[in-house]
Write a structure and sequence with these properties.
The complex is a heterodimer of chains A (about 100) and B (about 300).
Chain A: H1 7-20, H2 32-43, H3 53-83, H4 90-97
Helix pairs in contact in A: 1-3
Chain B: H1 10-14, E1 15-19, E2 25-29, H2 33-43, E3 64-69, E4 72-77, E5 80-81, E6 91-92, H3 95-107, H4 118-128, H5 135-143, H6 159-180, H7 197-208, H8 212-225, H9 228-235, H10 241-248, H11 250-259, H12 263-288
Antiparallel strand pairs in B: 1-2, 3-4, 4-5, 4-6
The chains are: A mainly alpha (about 100), B alpha+beta (about 300).
Chain lengths: ~100, ~300
């Protein structure tokens, strides 16, 4: 009853994140992480209506896992987008102020 | 003049005589860097890497697998066992954690950036123990953050932020006080909170009850959020990882909600803190979570 987020939603989140990490030819269903996760979910498959401590622990763990995967992915994306361009070349810098490089004439 | 000088000892470098136009020599003390640098390099017996910003390694493996049974699991990158920086094989006591570490390696697309693999880094630290720290040392380091805990520093100018802090941080502080039988109040001013010794010892005993792996996770989490109270609350599953990192950055969130946020700085920082803290939390939970199965009698 004290579920923070519905467990199905967390499960979907986790599967989505796992799918991103795979190479294109692999199927997410065969990955050991997926197998482990489904095993744990089925083992603790009590309904949301009943309070069960171990189930709470597992739900919290799944939620933290999903958070971690999502946060590290977003960090990489942001970093890639904003901070990965490297330095400007000499030509680019000259173009900003409208100068011509000596060899260009 | 200096070309002819043979620098065979450190003394030559330290006491140089500079001849000043016939007046006699004036001893110039101090390390003359352009030349001393050469000498120190020659004298160095430890070889340090010359380049301190090496090119990141590329992904050299196709598959990441987890092998092992009982209490020891190892991560393999394409038949090559994952090893810690000191050379020990990475042996993880928990299957879920081993899978998570394998996931970190599987997610890298092209360049391997070890500083973004938080769980791997934490496992390396625990196994290698590069600073030769005992559990007590690590817990002591964690407790040092208690004096300057984020939750104890409230805004004293401006009402809005103060009420927001009281509303968000108040319940957590109350829960913490109840749990540890303490009476920690927000402290005004710049100096740290005055935590009485019995309370500190209770918290120390609580942290020492976790094993070495989880204790390292605690230190990592506390360093990410700069708050012991929030980390303990999250370890007890009272708040989620996102809520904990939001509460730790409450003032920043308040200011950005008022003045606007800059994506390449604020969002980046937010995701980094969240990634670090949720990794720490995962590390704690994987190492304290014990599953027991009760079978139905047939």
């Amino acid at each position: 009853m004290a579920a923070v987020t519905p467990k199905i939603q967390t499960l979907r989140c986790l599967i989505r994140e796992m799918r991103r990490s795979l190479l294109p030819h692999e199927n997410v269903r065969h990955s050991p992480a997926f197998v482990y996760m489904m095993k744990e979910y089925r083992r603790n498959a009590v309904t949301d209506q009943q309070y069960c401590r171990q189930q709470e622990e597992m739900a919290y763990l799944a939620h933290t896992c999903a958070t971690y995967l999502e946060a590290s992915r977003r960090y990489q994306e942001l970093h890639q987008e904003y901070h990965c361009r490297g330095e400007r070349t000499v030509k680019e810098t000259a173009d900003i102020v409208g100068f011509k490089l000596p060899n260009e004439h | 003049m200096f070309n002819r000088r043979v620098l065979s000892s450190h003394r030559d470098v330290f006491d140089l005589e500079v001849k000043r136009g016939g007046d006699g020599s004036h001893t110039m003390r101090g390390l003359w860097w352009p030349v001393a640098h050469q000498l120190l390099k020659q004298a160095a017996t430890v070889t340090l890497p010359r380049r301190f910003l090496p090119e990141a390694r590329r992904r050299f493996y196709k598959n990441v697998t987890v092998a092992g049974n009982g209490g020891i699991y190892e991560v393999n990158l394409d038949l090559h066992k994952l090893k810690t920086p000191k050379g020990h094989t990475l042996q993880i006591p928990n299957y879920g954690l081993a899978l998570a570490v394998a996931q970190e390696w599987a997610v890298t697309k092209d360049k391997i950036v070890p500083s973004l693999m938080h769980l791997t880094g934490l496992s390396y630290t625990v196994i290698d123990n590069p600073n030769h720290e005992t559990k007590w040392d690590t817990v002591h380091k964690t407790l040092e953050y208690l004096d300057t805990d984020t939750l104890l520093f409230r805004e004293d100018q401006g009402e809005e932020l103060n009420t927001l802090q009281a509303k968000e941080w108040g319940p957590i502080l109350e829960w913490f006080n109840k749990k540890f039988d303490a009476d920690i109040k927000p402290c005004p001013g710049l100096f740290g909170a005055d935590i009485p010794d019995p309370v500190r010892e209770t918290i120390r005993r609580y942290l020492l009850s976790y094993d070495m792996w989880a204790v390292n996770g605690f230190l990592y989490g506390v360093e990410a959020l700069k708050s012991v109270i929030l980390t303990i609350a999250a370890a007890e599953r009272k708040i989620t990882a996102e809520k904990a990192s939001f509460l730790s950055r409450l003032e920043l969130e308040y200011q950005t909600s008022r003045w606007g946020s800059v994506e390449w700085a604020h969002d980046l920082d937010k995701q980094e803190v969240l990634a670090r803290f949720s990794a720490a939390l995962l590390f704690i939970h994987f190492n304290t979570w014990q599953a027991t199965t009760k079978h139905k009698s047939k």
